[in-house]
Amino acid sequence: MKVLTSIQIKDLDRYTIEHEPISSLDLMERASKALTQAIMERWDKNHPVKVFAGPGNNGGDALAVARMLADYDYAVEVFLFNTTDKLSEDCMANRDRIRKSKKLIFNEITSQFDPPELTENMLVVDGLFGSGLSRPLNGGFAAVVKYINASPASVVSLDVPSGLFCEDNSFNISSHIIRADLTLTLHMPKLAFFFQDTQQYIGEYQVLDIGLHPEGIDKAPATYFINNIEDIQKLLKKRDKFAHKGSMGHALLVAGSYGMAGAAILATKAALRTGLGKITVHTPKRNNDILQIAVPEAIIHHDSDDYRFVHPCPTEAFQAVGIGPGLGTMKDTAVAMIEETRRTQCPIVIDADALNILGDHRSWIQQVPTLAILTPHPKEMDRLAGNSNSCYERLAKAINMANSQQFYIVLKGAWTAIVTPEGNVYFNPSGNPGMATAGSGDVLTGIILGLLTQGYSQENAARLGVYIHGLAGDLAAQDLTEESLTAHDLIDYLPKAFKKLKGI
What we know:
By secondary structure, the chain is of the alpha/beta class. The chain contains 18 helices and 18 strands. The chain has helices at 6-19, 24-42, 57-71, 89-99, 139-150, 199-202, 214-219, 229-235, 261-273, 288-294, 331-342, 352-360, 378-385, 391-405, 440-453, 458-480, 487-492, 494-502; strands spanning 2-3, 49-53, 76-81, 105-109, 123-127, 154-158, 182-186, 204-208, 224-226, 250-254, 278-283, 299-302, 320-323, 348-350, 373-374, 408-411, 417-419, 425-427. The strands form two sheets. It has an eleven-stranded mixed beta sheet, sandwiched between helices. The protein starts with a strand and ends with a helix.
């Protein structure tokens, strides 16, 4: 599923108007019917509705919604802000329509605004500004936003919360943005919906299909996408009937310092559960017994040091390499890590302390092989590329690094972003807050390593790995609750996740 920019969505509106064909006013009416229906499904007539409409097309939507709600006998009061006498053509048409209605109270604000009392039982419909906003709100509109945010009323925003930019909010003014309980967005989610620092304004969101022209959507160029289950199912390979452990690949995992063997165990078990043939774990001698007992299926290869990784392991015999979980960042480990990484010729996934080492020695990033998969969480990404003012800026840095270094970057979070060397970004919808637990990232490393070892491309291994990791978390949370989820549960639920992807 494509995620288009605000400019592209306007172009898509125009394409629909020209090729359906349909008038812009009738398209607004169609959108408003969908918005009204969604509101009525959440709030009944016992909730008085206060509609705040701006001078643009978002205000036109709000006016049409107010008229429709009133026709369904909701108690509606409308405030249209027309302080410059410059309403958009469609907003003006809906104002003229609403003036004829005797079922609601209509107020057109041209100068002084006497705000209504907003109580806990009320619903505020926010239609002040939509996706076309390009600068922070100020003056009277900022005051209205602050007034709504300070009220106990429920707030539903139409398309986007007023004051929020659809993409980059790095230098927006936080207090001048509506904080919605529900955002009813048209066409598709906006880019800002996928960032932690803008989630506070969006609340829950629901996408409403208003019948934009499918040909226009197909033709629109996109670099942002959402992975859906249908896309992911197409990536799954069918195992050959005559497959054997030799044909399913042999992985090398470099992981674990003394006291951190658990990271190696989790990544190893996850890789095995993902279907590879064999896995060798290169780890300090002190980890031998616990790994042999915890994961008897694995081959253990001892480092020369008892306590940490200091000696690179030959990689010629392996189809893929994973490095980082539980390594530590001591100087000799750091030197061994970059040497191991630099000379690896097969696909490699780099995580955890390996990323921290690169963050401490940024010039070493140039030695990392092209097409490597890096799996940083936000703080690790900041160590690699410098601190960011916003999640949008952090993603932009990930895109720049992926393109300049020809890496795949898995920027982890609630909407994990898989960034390709070409600059495409795939947002992952699976997963839940219960996965915010120690070892979850080690499991993801093991899953991606397991897929790479079986011959999946780097892009497909990252996309499929992230999705199935989150899906296992979702299935586990259904049975165990988010609070009780552990990293081991993710491994235990991988079989169910594969079954769901296969439809069995």
